[in-house]
Amino acid sequence: MSKTIIISNRLPVQLQISDGGLSAIPSVGGLATGMKSVHSGDDSLWIGWSGLTDEDIPNILEPQIDHALRELNCSKVRLNKSDIEGYYFGFSNRTIWPLFHYFLEYSEFELDFWESYKAVNQKFADAIIEAADEDDIIWVHDYQLLLVPEMVKAKRPNATIGFFLHIPFPSYEIFRTLPWREHILRGLLGADLIGFHTYDYERHFLSSVRRLLGLDVSFNDIYLEDRVIKVDSFPMGIDYHKFSEAAKKSIALQGKHRSDLQKKLDEHKRSAPGTKLIVSIDRLDYSKGIAKRINAFEYFLNKYPEYKEKVRLIILAVPSRSNVPQYQLLKREIDELVGRINGELSTVNWTPIWYFYRSLPFENLIDLYTSSDIAWLTPLRDGMNLVAKEYIATRTDKTGVLILSEMAGSANEMNEALLINPNNFEEQADTLKQAITMPKEEQMARNMFLQKRLQRYNVEVWANEFMNSLKSQRKAVGTFVSE
Ligand code: GDG
């Protein structure tokens, strides 16, 4: 019987060392949840990095780690500190990430990063080749592993390989600037199915394949020697039920059972009735447009001063990639902006911005979603943006307004949200006013459509549709080769 192998940079597992020894706790992130139906039972295996480098793992613990991972049908790829520096913090996050998010000026074309990326992709590919039989189904995830499909196909030509990119694929004019552009395309073309969040990313990829490799492309099929590679879009959904149920639980908590964060938010609502809470939640990443959002908020307060003391912006910025210089600079910029604006505009009763630089437990994230009147998400580029979808899923009474950047992949499916261009402060100021004054009936009408769509196309459906398409590609490839 064939098995399914999933590969991502990180395993869906958190390793913990305690008195009782070592344990591997399954993580509850979006991808792990979505892949539950695919990664279940002994006929599936998830290969990835454990989060600990060779230098972090004492030899004596190695067998224990492997055993704990095996219990969860996981297997680790061993990486050392220098791999992580070159492949992860280097090529993945200082070359590909900025380039694919249109931050051309941040993208570093360093030969050392590239060499490390190739070597580490080969380590992942070797781990797959060792584990995979000829007729297995292999699903590779994301921008850290763009070369893996070709490396695996070379040794396992009959395996069916799928690849899904979680970030945007940029337009040809951007992608062509990459010195190793043909290698990256050829790496991906080892897959039989290549999936993107949106139709636009798919078109950009096909255009690069046609123009840089001169291959035949017909609709969404690429012809490469004796193979046909299918390219398609699969917009990722969320675990709708998990978010709506958690929201019901959060809202139902009474008195002393309410979380400290909820108590603080309740107190705020009591002391300043009618004040609107605007929330924004992102990893601290320049692609998310956090600094521009803060500037746009200041612009709004200057344009519509009647809203001073009537609105508060809550920013949750989750620490991310703090080894990369651009992220350190951004952190400083945001600290200064928040400090300056709060310093200039605060009154004895009002602080315009509450800024949290940390990760919150899931329950608190839900408290924030359920307590806020408006979610304001302004990425300059974003593959999908799941926060937008999660906010809508937690609005169990259907109230709440979502303001969403049209540069997020999720904007394609969320037309009933208020869509904005994050570079246009004038438009955002007016949209904030529209959100603040939007009648409840209109909020509910908009959210009803959004919720229905998100319920239907949830993360499990996303994973199953990709897998079904991959399986039918296997059949199609079989037919093509034998003809
Ligand atoms: C990449 C692409 C694409 C956030 N803060 C906390 C927390 N979160 C959770 C959210 C959400 C996830 O993190 C963030 O997902 P996004 O989709 O918004 O963004 P990226 O991390 O950039 O993800 C993106 C995604 O991959 C999937 O393909 O949508 O475009 O960039 O689920 O809930 N969770 C907890 N505490 C926090 O403080 N527990």
> Which regions are unreliable across 5 or more consecutive residues at pLDDT < 50?
479-483
Indicate the percent of residues in helices: 40-55%
- The spatial strand order of the largest sheet comes to 5-4-1-6-7-8-11-10-9
Q: What structural category characterises the helix and strand content? A: alpha/beta
C-alpha termini separation = 25 Å
Structure summary:
The protein is 46% helix and 18% strand. The protein contains 17 helices and 17 strands. It has a 9-stranded mixed β-sheet. A 6-stranded parallel β-sheet has the order 14-13-12-15-16-17, with helices on both faces. Strands 2-3 form a two-stranded antiparallel sheet.
What report would you give on this structure?
- The protein has 483 residues and is α/β, with parallel strands linked by helices.
- A 9-stranded mixed β-sheet has the order 5-4-1-6-7-8-11-10-9. The protein has a 6-stranded parallel β-sheet with strand order 14-13-12-15-16-17, sandwiched between helices. Strands 2-3 form a two-stranded antiparallel ribbon.
- Helix 4 packs across helix 5, helix 9 crosses helix 13 and helix 11 packs parallel to helix 12.
- The two termini are 25 Å apart.
- The structure holds GDP-alpha-D-glucose (GDG).
- The site of GDP-alpha-D-glucose has 19 residues, from strand 12, strand 13, helix 13 and helix 14.
